[in-house]
User: Fold this.
Amino acid sequence: MSRFDPHPPTLAPVSLDALVTALRAAGEDTRLRVLALLAEGELNVSDLTEILGQSQPRISRHLKLMAEAGLIERHREGAWAFFRIAERTPAGALARDLAERLDPADPVVAADKARLAAVRQARSEAAQTYFNRHAVEWDRIRSLHAADDEVEAAVLAAVGDKPIRALLDLGTGTGRMLALLAPRAARAVGVDSNHAMLAVARANMELAGIRGAELRQGDIYAPPVERGAFDLVVVHQVLHFLEDPPRALREASALLAPGGRLIVVDFAPHGLEFLREAHAHRRLGFAREQMEAWLAEAGLDALSYGELRAPGDEPDRLTVSLWVACDRRVITDIIPRASQEVA
Assistant:
């Protein structure tokens, strides 16, 4: 199980009226069963209908009542709506406390959890099918640059030991960076525009034992998250797909809390035109000077730069570049202001 635990250990104070409303909304057997399921991670109406064996309109009514009471929260993902226990409200803390007090050996609760496991297994198989369809093309690109574990080690080194209060992975894809960094974060959010990729990411979070990560469908130019709320934002192998990378960096900057850090991982300039033609790469890498100029325009100070070069001398190898930048309103002292060759 991941060390990722975004939930405070104590319940925040709540007004009498709000507490009565929350208790009334939770005080029904189906709704308590829903809360127990959502305590394990986000689910959609279809998942809950399958697990609980109740009609979609009935489940939707229960969800609406609990959402209005602040026990749970809802977010859209294309035509789907996903629900989770509210993370930052007193009612949400109460909902999680109630769910955790349910006896896991209770026959109804245990049966629900068994059906939840079956739903997750089906989801994982569907995600794996999608992944397998694209695995050959992804593996071909991976073979051209430094190994993923080397890149991940460099990212972890750039993050350092400072606790992460709120992490945002923009363009999360299969959730690789999210799974890597979520165990260090009090809150972890991944955003991607592609519903199928989010399904893969959701399955990967479950395989990694990470239950609290938030996954949202949204545009990188208008991410569906709070501005000024994240002390670490990661943009990993995303910018080369975009028409307007500087705009994405400005949006990422606006999401940082004062002194927050942005980590950008992408390719150095290269001439592999087949990536543009076959894999929708808009940009064939980024020069260090260009990226740092864009970061400055976004209100960020570049703190460090590193490169990971693929082994071998073949001309068709890709170099991975890693930039760390900081919101200039408050300069952290975690990473020295210097160029660092990480490989």
The domain at 144-339 is CATH 3.40.50.150 (Rossmann fold). The longest strand covers residues 256-267. Residues 107-142 form the longest helix (36 residues). The CA atoms of residues 132 and 256 lie 35 Å apart.
